[in-house]
Amino acid sequence: MSGPVTPGLVIVDKPGGITSHGVVSRVRRLAGTRKVGHAGTLDPMATGVLVLGVDRATRLLGHLMLTEKGYDATIRLGVATNTDDAEGEVTATVPAGHLSEEAIREALAAFVGDIEQVPTAVSAIKVDGKRAYARVRDGEDVQLKARPVTIHELTVHDVARVSASGDNATLEGTHTTDLIDVDVSVRCSSGTYIRAIARDLGAALGVGGHLTALRRTAVGPYTLEHARTIDQLNEHYELLPIADAARAAFPAYELDAEQAQEVRYGRKLALSLDALTAVFAPDGEFLALYEPAGEMARPLAVFTG
Q1: Catalytic: which of 13, 43, 72, 85?
Q2: Is 138 considered catalytic here?
Q3: Measured CA angle at 136 (ends 133, 138), to 5 deg
Q4: Spatial distance between the Cα atoms of 42 and 20, rounded to a whole number of angstroms
Q5: Same domain? 203 vs 282
Q6: In whole numbers, what is the pLDDT of the chain averaged over residues?
Q7: Same domain (yes/no): 138, 195
Q8: Exposure of 112 by Cβ count < 10 A (0-12 exposed, 13-18 middle, 19+ buried)?
Q9: Pseudouridine synthase II N-terminal domain: which residues (predicted)?
Q10: Disulfide-capable partner of 39 in 61, 187, 204, 293 (CB 3.0 to 4.6 Å)?
Q11: Residue 184 lies inside a defined structural domain of this protein
Q12: 130 and 75 co-located in one domain
């Protein structure tokens, strides 16, 4: 690409087997700029919605990370791993074939609402300046503190005895009929670890559990319908303009010319807002994000210039 870089979002359907940083690198080449970031990482095993910001739109990403997210996942009961997913080493197996579907659904229902969740030990959370996953990789025993998260909705689609064999989540002497796969959809707050739900469900049922599949279906208003595969982007680089992205993610307020000039100076406005709001110039240009401040509104992030 030549000329000025257009700021906006690129919604990618991340394939499995590639890191989020790997996707960022590819979009940097397509966009013609190194100023590309993502709104929440996905593990290499995971697929689905990865929201990338280009140029000034990278400054939107920190606010997008505060939104709800949606996932489809498969939880395998009967096997625990050291990463809480299928990429880790098996640490324990306990036959789960005796569990009823009713018991599994009842246990999962306990996770809905405001809960305290201990993040997976191989998360990107920093412990004394070092990523937790790096400490685990170095052989350290990492104990993370519980954090408040919200599970808005958890839907169970299927509960099935496993009939396939030969995966990395079985040990010698463990029959596949001892394992159960649970297909779920989750709508949750940012910061929720679906792997931790699998781990904690297995612990609650006394059999261990881990994820065998994870697909992110939504980040805020951006869903798989908006996402494009890497191959599709290679054929036609498609970017959601920053103004459209802001309108999709936040309440919008249309300013008059005088107010727009005040925003360009980074000043407070005599506006009564109920939430973080995207404000626009009379010509439709996205100017800033403003937040309530009593009877006024103050700039949280200004995107002009």
Answers
A1: 43
A2: no
A3: 110
A4: 6
A5: no
A6: 89
A7: yes
A8: middle
A9: 28-194
A10: 61
A11: yes
A12: yes
Cβ pair 37, 67 in contact under 8 A: no
pLDDT of residue 3: 57
Q: Which domain holds residue 53?
A: 8-67+220-244
Instruction: Tell me which residue of 285, 243, 240, 305 sits closest to 31, measured CA to CA.
Output: 240
Place of tokens 């005040």: 262
In angstroms, the CA 26 to CA 147 distance is 33
Last residue of a domain, one of 200, 216, 232: 216
Give the domain CATH number at 211: 3.30.2350.10
112 and 85 share one domain = yes
Q: What is the pLDDT of residues 45-87, one digit of tens each?
A: 999 999 999 999 999 988 887 789 999 999 999 999 988 999 8
What are the distances in angstroms from CA 39 to CA 14, 71, 265? 13, 15, 28
- Whole-prediction pTM value? 0.87
**Do 277 and 237 share a structural domain?**
no
| pLDDT greater than 60 at residue 223 | yes
In the predicted model, is pLDDT for residue 172 greater than 50?
Answer: no
Same domain, 142 and 83: yes
Q: What's the pLDDT score for residue 1?
A: 43
Q: Cα(295)–Cα(292) distance, rounded to whole angstroms?
A: 8
* 81 and 189 part of one domain: yes
